[in-house]
Amino acid sequence: MKVEFGGLSLGSLRIEIPIIQGGMGVRVSSSSLVSAVSNEGALGVIAAVGLGEECDNEQRDYKMRSRAELTNIIRETRRMTKNPFGVNIMCVLTNYDELVEAAQAESVDVIISGAGLPLRLPSLIKNKKTKLIPIISSSRAAQIICSTWSRRYKRLPDAIIIEGPLAGGHLGYSLAELADEEHFSLDKILTEVLAVTRTFENDKTRIPVIAAGGIFDGKDIARVMRLGASGVQMATRFVCTHECDVSLQYKEAYIAAKKEDIIVIQSPVGMPGRVISNEFVKKVTEGAHVAFGCEYKCLYTCDAQKVNYCIAKALLNAYRGDLNKGFAMCGSNAYRINKIISVKELICELVTETESCLNIPLP
């Protein structure tokens, strides 16, 4: 069967290039990167987590600052692109409802939601044009979301992102599952999720499945599309672009990383997280306590009384370039990046490689 690398249809919304730029929190994917990706015909995605940590808004309350800053970034992105873009809002955020409302008020094209099952998300949506995409890590989660949304809200996801164990940042797998490559590979889980979504589809409704986690080049994109994926989500590759919103030092950490530097740690939020190791990582994983006051209370899953450092502060420090007091999160293939290029160059490279690989007959 010939596979075309064409556009991505999210209900009535058409994305020209079936690549979603993954939302990277604490300002890694903000207006500069997101608008550049969308301007090239892919889907740029703002990450809503961590926006209240560095905000000029006079509101003292973290939740109010986060909402105000998300609104500002959405408006700035819209000034920089006329094409569709999305917002990633994590389920575990204590101000989840407020951030969804802010995205709704600004009529964003797509809301992507993971780090938990977004079972209530359709109930928060007033603008029916906004497309909803959950991020999951198993076929069971796909079944639960599709059946719950269908039963309660008479709607289905406009697409589903399946994030495999090679992804960056916080992961929806246990440490044991991450070590079990035979049973927890992206390709295997993708096939299982496709089997679930097909049971909910009909002549009028399709649920595109987007593959994510360890997707690095056109060869990877072609592989998952041959398995049935409608597109891919990629985050790590977009960090080392000129337009990415992080500091140069953050990007240089990617370029300097060796394969053995990319490790999985147990995050204070109660989930494994893939990061680039440095002296700060070594210190906190050995149990050193980094004094902090929890002014954010940003995640339900983080107990400030029990953890030895604040991951929000660590990631904010990294964003600013102070990697002595923080670390960069990344995907498993970050060590393969060796230079900083433009978003335009990257997407052109990915499209060319994918089309070339799809035109090569399978053995």
Task: Describe what this molecule looks like in 3D.
With 363 residues, the chain is α/β, with parallel strands linked by helices. It has two domains: 8-246 and 340-358, Alpha-Beta Barrel (TIM Barrel); 248-320, no CATH class. The protein has helices spanning 31-39, 62-80, 96-105, 139-153, 175-179, 186-198, 218-227, 236-239, 248-256, 279-285, 311-320, 343-358; strands spanning 8-10, 13-15, 19-21, 44-47, 85-88, 110-113, 131-136, 160-163, 169-170, 209-212, 231-234, 262-266, 272-276. Strands 3-11-10-8-7-6-5-4 form an eight-stranded parallel beta sheet. Strands 9-13-12 form a three-stranded antiparallel beta sheet, with no helix packed on it. It has a two-stranded antiparallel sheet with strand order 1-2. Strand 12 and strand 13 form a beta hairpin. Helix 1 packs parallel to helix 2, helix 4 packs parallel to helix 6 (186-198) and helix 7 (218-227) crosses helix 12. It is globular and about 55 Å long. The mean pLDDT is 91.
